[in-house]
Write a structure and sequence with these properties.
It contains eight helices and seven strands; from the N terminus they run βαβαβαβαβαβααβα. With 238 residues, the chain is of the alpha/beta class. Helix 5 (127-143) runs parallel beside helix 8. The structure holds guanosine-5'-triphosphate (GTP) and magnesium ion (MG).
Length: 238
């Protein structure tokens, strides 16, 4: 609960047995979280058992993909304030408080993992990944007249339910380039969007998306094409 408003945290999880329990308890331990919802995306390790051993709500999404898991969780959300994050040890539950403080004045708060001082030693945010994220974020910012943006891959975000409800059924990107669609829809749905730095830590468990540079570059290109295509589509919508 944050100032009489309910708070839910959503985790997408694909084979995250190493970090899942700790991530769930860390968020509950902040004292502000009413419910952690974990969307298990066909995990074949002990993720399911890990979730069930905690007080978190277990959801299952059969369609593979980072976006598919997040969309399932976002559509199930009922709280006043909804926070998305990852249960892989890369985010700090303490940062929830930073997002909540901003939620007093903003409807949507994006985290950014590219602030140099907040990147921990050993975190997967080397120069290439950092600059790539900033560059693609700037493209999105300029084409959609957004707030200052420096990250297109950060899962740690906060959104108020009234804003989320205005576009949640239109979310369609089930793959790893889900975040640009979420960001574009948020910017188009609300004037009160802001990005703030969050801590970025080394991962526990195995990386599924940006752990390999080749994969990260391919994802960056997919995001650029998605942003350009969406901008062209919006020209015809007005
Ligand atoms: N790749 C992938 N991730 C999924 C899927 N379903 C849920 N996830 C979760 O989505 C989150 C993002 O995947 P990560 O492997 O952490 O990718 P990343 O955050 O880009 O990179 P690292 O954290 O550095 O490994 C994790 O919490 C995954 O467990 C899926 O089908 N595919
Ligand atoms: Mg991750």
């Amino acid at each position: 609960m944050w100032k009489q408003q309910t708070v839910q945290v959503i985790f997408p999880a694909f084979n995250e047995e190493e970090g899942i329990r700790r991530a769930i308890t860390d968020f509950y331990d902040t004292g502000f979280v009413d419910e952690v919802i974990v969307v298990d995306n066909n995990s074949t390790d002990g993720t399911r058992e890990g979730i069930l051993a905690t007080g978190a709500t277990y959801l299952f999404e059969q369609q593979p993909g980072y976006g598919a898991a997040l969309i399932r969780g976002l559509r199930a959300a009922t709280a006043d304030i909804i926070v998305t994050c990852e249960p892989d040890g890369t985010f700090s539950a303490r940062d929830l408080i930073k997002l909540l403080i901003y939620s007093d004045d903003y409807e949507v708060v994006f985290g950014t993992r590219t602030s140099k001082a907040a990147i921990w030693s050993g975190a997967n945010m080397g120069w290439m990944l950092r600059m790539g994220n900033v560059a693609v974020a700037k493209l999105l910012e300029y084409l959609f007249n957004g707030p200052c943006l420096t990250d297109v891959g950060c899962t740690m975000k906060l959104i108020r339910r009234n804003v989320l409800e205005s576009f949640v059924q239109q979310l369609s990107v089930t793959g790893s380039h889900f975040q640009p669609q979420f960001m574009i829809m948020s910017i188009r749905a609300s004037q009160k969007v802001i990005e703030i730095p969050v801590e970025y830590l080394p991962r526990t468990g195995v990386s599924k998306i940006t752990g390999k540079l080749g994969k990260a570059i391919r994802l960056g290109m997919t995001m650029i094409l998605f942003i350009l295509k969406t901008r062209v589509q919006t020209l015809f919508q007005r």
